Amino acid sequence: MTCAGHNSLVSIAEWARRCEQEVLARLGCPYDPFAGRYRAPGERTLRDAFARVDPAALTAAGFAHLTALATAPLAPVNPDGTREREQRRAHRTARRVRPGHQSIRRRAIAVDGKCLRGAVRADGSKVFVLSAVRHDDALTAALREIGAKTNEIPEFAPLLDQIADTDLTDTVVTVDALHARTAHARYLVEQRKAHYLLSVKHNQPTLARQLAKLPWREIPVQDRSRDRGHGREEVREVKVASVDNLLFPHAKQVVRIHRKRRRLGTKKWSTETVYAVTDLAAHQAGAAEIAAWARGHWMIESTVHWSKDVVFGEDLSQVRRHRTPVVVSVFRDLARAALHRAGWANIASGRRAHTRPEAILTLHGIP
Q1: Rounded (10°) angle between helices 55-68 and 324-341
Q2: Per the database record, which ranges form the Transposase IS4-like domain (predicted)?
Q3: Phi, psi at 215, each rounded to 5°
């Protein structure tokens, strides 16, 4: 129901109270035989129910439901026929396939954490979640709430344990430098028969120094891209080197990505060089594929987290009871993914187009 533009439990309950009896029946609301009517849940009922829901089970059920829905192609106009700039831009980007990127041989999943800034536990600690999101369709395959006395690192394997072997085997898992851990690499390759692309920074100083000392000057640039948008221009150059004695389990290739950025209308460039390692050998993954996975990893920030924070107002939400903050976050993500799967590039525009109950039911495939 958050597709209808309602971000809080109070507004969702108000929306439900305005629904016709036929809509409440389709939503599965309880029938009161004495009043002869279907009863819409109130704000307290929603709050009590959400506090008892398992966020991980809800995410898994939503993932199974969304994967069963048909995916609408990304058209130059919105699915309702209206014209919108972001929709046109996304359509042009989808059609502009760079050489080498049309033959990506493996699906990728990005793992990243997020803080629910408005939510606070009873002990005063912040609420964090760890998510696994598919690159190609931005569907959240698994989610796990991080306890108050732990962090993302020990939750990595339990998060991916929620994903079936059929969905994870031979898949590339991309993570940031926080998860560049030998235990994570061994878990993916040895236990789950998957692959990894791990960013490496100075939290692994020995490995970072080893990567920086490789003879990069002698290695040619194997993939180059230039993009303009959102008021800036970015140039990326990718070099890949095969290795066999790296101090990291199962590592077969090292990636060096050099980025240059400038704001349009200026001449000053900022530069950044990042390194990553993967267990895929050169014949299993080329430079263009690795570059696509590395850039696709930030989709979880630009597509998932940004939409939930800005479009759904997640950082402003102050629901705090038990599991309710995480459960409401899952519902926001399911609404975002449903709109994206229906062909909406602009999620805010998609929400505005789904204020009517009939449109909501059709979007989610509710008979």
Answers
A1: 10
A2: 109-322
A3: -75, 70
